[in-house]
Amino acid sequence: MLQKTTSLRTTPRQKAMGTPVQAKATMSLAELILVGVGGIIGAGFFLGSGLPIRTAGPAVLISFLMGGLITAQVVGALASVAMDHPVEGAFKVYADMYLGRFLGYMQGWTYYLTSTLTIASEAVASAIFVRVWLPAVPLWALSSGFAAMIILINAFGVANFGRIESLMSVIKIAALVGFAAVILLMLFGVRPHTLTIPVATSTGGGFFPHGVGGIFQSMLIVIFSFAGIGVFATAAVELKHPKKLDTGAIVTITCLTVLYLLSIGTMLLVLPFERVSTNISPFVQALQYIHMNILANVLNAVILVAAFSVMAGAVFSANQILASLGQSGEAPRFTTRTSKQRHVQYGALLFTAFGIAIFLALSYVLPSSVYNFLVSASSFLTFFNYFIMLATFLSWRHKSRHKPVSRLAFGQPVATVLTMAVVVFLAGYALFQREQRLGFYACLGMTAFISMGYFFTHKFQRHRLEQN
């Protein structure tokens, strides 16, 4: 949900270069950590984790550990540059400064599209959660309703974004920890004597039922579970004490990885991976499987809150990036318009609402599973964003060898180069799955469209400068 933000004050030269000045800092370290965790844990994990579990089996735990290590390098890269340049626009501005305006433009717009796809996918996921209670209502009606609801909530403006996101984060963390605790307590006998808890047994294949290839194939969706780090990066500029950013980054990624491994590991103790459904949350399914239907309904409601939280965070970070693009003349000027009373960026909000509507419409028209299409397209764009963020860090590090580096960005420069190679490999490996190729084609088409937009935009800017 959009907070009451200060407008970007820029000189004409700064507008041309796309380098807005530092924003007002109002967020504590604890709020930043909770905003980071809250912006990442959503339907991409609660619902989407069913896909990699089916693909990799119990070895999905390795997949999530790999996802945590990759994300640690990316967040470490972002934190390192952000400590040196605490500005609104975050990684879009950094790419401008260190890789050139074209890649900065590409970074800004691909991240914006990733955020918009995330909102659309969370709306679809929310609809799937609600269909547990309302199976007769069409999926398209529910998802459209949830998307409209989050836009309307943002239209009225919310002044305390950090506090609201922090509260939602606490709820989600408590839900995952509580889920693991319930499973473990019941397995160790702390349960009614009339209730029998089955221990998961597989049909075979051991820990690697689909080999190492299963791990690689699952990574596209696993990365989507970590993709919300953009909220952490764009909210970092609000931190009261920028020097604590590195600590916030370490705690955020550590908490996420531990929560993911703990919750999936305990779920697999009672629910065989072959029985995991992709139509409902596997965590809700696990509670239903052990006949804890009341807790399953409670968890389903909490997951709905999680989806709303991620949608709110995605709108926040998307509008920040769009405002940066608008200020530098790389997005329509009306996207920078802000209401005087509530300080809501209504121009960016209308633009985002239109984009969400397009993605929701396409997801139901194209011949593919709705949720899988949105997640796959968003994940390929996330791989692109990760690659550019890491390349930006390498360029910054080359020019700023004396500057402090985040402890998450360990093993430089070898670790960053290796992570970039792994990102390219995983993106290519995902193409072997037919159902994920449609998302890649959509990503390719959007990237080509953005590239053409760059040359049109900058040709117009040069013409306007020549006239002046």
Question: Care to describe what's here?
Answer:
This protein has one domain: Up-down Bundle (Amino acid/polyamine transporter I), CATH 1.20.1740. Helix 7 runs antiparallel to helix 16, helix 8 (139-155) packs across helix 14 and helix 8 packs antiparallel against helix 15 (346-365). The protein has helices spanning 12-17, 29-40, 43-46, 50-56, 60-84, 90-99, 101-130, 139-155, 161-187, 211-226, 229-235, 245-270, 282-289, 293-327, 346-365, 370-399, 414-429, 434-467. The chain has 18 helices and no strands. The model is unreliable at 1-23 (pLDDT under 50). It is mainly alpha-helical and 468 residues long. The chain is 71% helix and 0% strand. The protein starts with 11 loop residues before the first helix and ends with a helix.
CATH architecture classification name: Up-down Bundle
Instruction: Count the domains.
Output: 1
β-strand amount: under 5%
Unreliable stretches (pLDDT < 50, length at least 5) are 1-23
InterPro entries: AA-permease/SLC12A_dom
GO cellular component, one term: membrane
Keywords: Amino-acid transport, Membrane, Transmembrane, Transmembrane helix, Transport
Subcellular location: Membrane
